[in-house]
Amino acid sequence: MINLFEVNETNKMIEQENLDVRTITIGISLIDCIDANIDILCQNIYKKITTVAADLVKTGENIEKKYGIPIVNKRISVTPIGLIGASACHTCDDFVKIAKTLDQCARQVGVNFIGGYSAIVSKGMTKAEKLLIQSIPQAMKETELVCSSVNVGSTKTGINMDAVKLIGEIIKETASFTKEQDSIGCAKFVVFCNAPDDNPFMAGAFHGVSETDAIINVGVSGPGVVRKAIQSARGKDFGELCETVKKTAFKITRVGQLVAREASAALNIPFGIIDLSLAPTPAIGDSIADCLTEMGLERVGAPGTTAALAILNDQVKKGGVMASSYVGGLSGAFIPVSEDQGMIDAVEAGALTLEKLEAMTCVCSVGLDMIAIPGKTSAKTIAGIIADEMAIGMINQKTTAVRIIPVIGKDVGEKVEFGGLLGYAPIMPVNPFSCDEFIDRGGRIPAPIHSFKN
Amino acid sequence: MEKAIITVVGKDQVGIIAQVCQSLAQKNINILDISQTILDGYFNMMMIVNMSSSKEPFAIVSDQLEKLGESIGVYIKLQHEDIFNKMHRI
């Protein structure tokens, strides 16, 4: 039988170490909404989303009550709109119309974000997908809750450099369209290599075409709990450190699994996966950087940081897969800068640079995330940063992503405030040398040799 | 049987258990087990209760116990036992 010690341990995690379920995300397929008429398409989308997700927020709140654990976000992801809008959208404005419909749906059902204003263009872009990408700046300006993503490469297809170049320009444009709000539009847009179909986390969530009609994916988190566990292994060798992190990840994931099953039963929607990513928030103690420094680094960015992150990421996965048979999404440690107080401090102390962050992305769960750079950075330099990150993903057969914000009108030494879960960030310097000729080549980087596994 | 765990934490005083038990009795909730300690003057109790026969739904009981806790000056939390079972048992 459960004893007092175990009950106290669980409740201490929740109350003092910020253990929470980060998100319940319903993935909804919009394929059956497709129509050649844009207005009918928007109606179909509105009807489907508001029906399927009608009880999501209420169900989430009931589960919170039943188990006494906070569920921070309730979200929706949909089939990439680049596909759904293909026959109805002939201009960028048509796509923006769909974005506005998604925004309305999100408000109607009370979720905090809706993802899937996306296109999968890892090998080539259809006419519609190109239009969708071009509509992103306007869509991000005119909506508040819609998140957008574009997958520009994969290990199987190589990297679509035409798309990378275009996205460099789109990021700049999105930044200037939302310059009055510190270019916040860019915080809702992410570019991927090897994007998973079942990621519940924003801004990159979309409902892949390999998925069923509707599915529940749950993201659990708890960097504070992991940090506390690492603290208990102070001075111990790596074997013991790894064991400690692994056990903690197991416990966290089990809670996520419980919540996922419960939500799935209550909403009568099948359970998809648990994403066991450690995701920080700007709250004190809810930091990935703190986990790394607790391992024995003075600051994140110091030599040893990549190794420490590799340990953290791998042990989280190992503990998690023992706890749930259906682990998916991104699963690992996120290292966003603006959302993590420890990372912000490291940047401000001069310990953490863009280049070190890039190295860290080779072993973390995703990539360059929530990084503010000077607004004057050129579109081609941004494309170069994206190309580097995509190459890491392609060659290492992992998901990588870039969510970078060129803050218009601000430069190194200044700060940008996004508010809420997005936090604030110091503007980081970017290597000033040019990659223009490289980006201007155009075309596609062929798939790497190890993609030929047939 | 639908079991839940009630935890009560706070400064020790006369009648904490009595008031919690009285509230549970009114709702027709049976107590299966109680363990309690005093740590540095702080009252720390765990109760295992059977919710199946409760007159009120889970969420309402949870809110009422929380309010009761506020009036006594202790912290009361009701949780379904599964969160502990899942976390601590394979």
Shape of chain A: globular
Main pleated sheet of chain A: 11 strands, mixed
| Helical amount of chain B | 25-40%
Question: What is the radius of gyration of chain A?
Answer: 21 Å
Which spans of chain A have pLDDT < 50 for at least 5 consecutive residues?
Answer: none
Number of helices of chain B: 3
Largest sheet of chain B: 4 strands, antiparallel
CATH class call of chain B = Alpha Beta
Q: What is the tally of beta strands of chain A? A: 13
Helix and strand composition category of chain A: alpha/beta
Total strands of chain B = 4
Give the strand order, joined by hyphens, for the main sheet of chain B: 2-3-1-4
CATH-level-2 architecture of the domain at 21-193 in chain A: Alpha-Beta Barrel
Description:
The complex is a heterodimer of chains A (454) and B (90). Chain A has 454 residues and is of the alpha/beta class. Chain A has helices at 4-16, 38-52, 56-67, 81-84, 92-109, 127-142, 161-177, 223-232, 238-267, 288-294, 305-323, 341-348, 354-360, 379-396, 436-440; strands at 20-28, 71-78, 113-120, 146-154, 158-160, 189-193, 214-221, 271-275, 368-374, 400-407, 415-417, 424-426, 444-445. In chain A, the strands form 2 sheets. In chain A, strands 1, 2, 3, 4, 5, 6, 7, 8, 9, 10 and 13 form an 11-stranded mixed β-sheet that branches. Chain B has 90 residues and is of the alpha+beta class. Chain B contains 3 helices and 4 strands, in the order E-H-E-E-H-E-H. Chain B starts with a strand and ends with a helix. The A-B interface holds A 1-4, 6-11, 62, 65-69, 251, 254-255, 257-258 and B 5, 7, 33, 35, 37, 44, 46, 48, 58-59, 62, 77-88.
What is the secondary structure topology, with strand pairs?
The complex is a heterodimer of chains A (454) and B (90).
Chain A: H1 4-16, E1 20-28, H2 38-52, H3 56-67, E2 71-78, H4 81-84, H5 92-109, E3 113-120, H6 127-142, E4 146-154, E5 158-160, H7 161-177, E6 189-193, E7 214-221, H8 223-232, H9 238-267, E8 271-275, H10 288-294, H11 305-323, H12 341-348, H13 354-360, E9 368-374, H14 379-396, E10 400-407, E11 415-417, E12 424-426, H15 436-440, E13 444-445
Parallel strand pairs in A: 1-2, 2-3, 3-4, 4-6, 7-8, 9-10
Antiparallel strand pairs in A: 1-7, 4-5, 5-13, 6-10, 11-12
Helix pairs in contact in A: 2-5, 3-9, 5-6, 6-7, 7-14, 8-9, 8-10, 9-11
Chain B: E1 3-11, H1 16-26, E2 30-39, E3 42-50, H2 58-72, E4 74-80, H3 82-88
Antiparallel strand pairs in B: 1-3, 1-4, 2-3
